[in-house]
Amino acid sequence: MALAVSDILALPELRTRLVSGAQGQKRLVRWAHVCELADPTEWLGDGDLLMTTGMGIPPAPQDQRAYVQRLANAGLAGLMIGEHMQAPPDLDALLQHAQALGFAVMLTHYGVPFAAVTRAIVDAGQQEEQARRNAITRVYESARMSIQGLGLATLLKRLKQDVQAQLTLLDAHTLTPWRAELSGLAPQQREVLASRLRELPGNRPVVQRLALDSGEVLV
User: Which pTM does this prediction carry?
Assistant: First the structure.
């Protein structure tokens, strides 16, 4: 599965600790890249983790605030600074502004190569891809069993386990269970979903992704 900032912090071999922006620990890390430019956002973007020796971090407080603001605005997952390297000795302005933004800033032990962080992210991506392939295999197996007479309720139960998500089969107009033996939506979920569907244009895509307070729904 994709790593979050908190997962990177939890890996003992990376010897990394959070120094600011605890609210950003849930951000997913798409990739990690070293950049020592004054404006890393020219090369990095949404979900990227910036790794730096600190060379590009400005010493002036107002410039530090602008630096971390640019990173947050670009959607970066966080900032990882090599400890005892080339960062300015006073990072208070950067850390305070990162805390206000909920933008994760980490310090990594001097002896940990940045390549180790990248390898951890690559390994996690490979595991996620393997898990996705396994899930697809299980879905096909469940579909094969349904052809052989597996009941609808049992099929949905198997598919729920296959894809690790709640599944239900609803009437498209009433949003009630298609059959009496099937589970349905909670009243609040049904009301919100009906409202969202009414807002969609007439020519709807076959699959729609809707964000509800209770989670994401594919219809």
Answer: 0.60
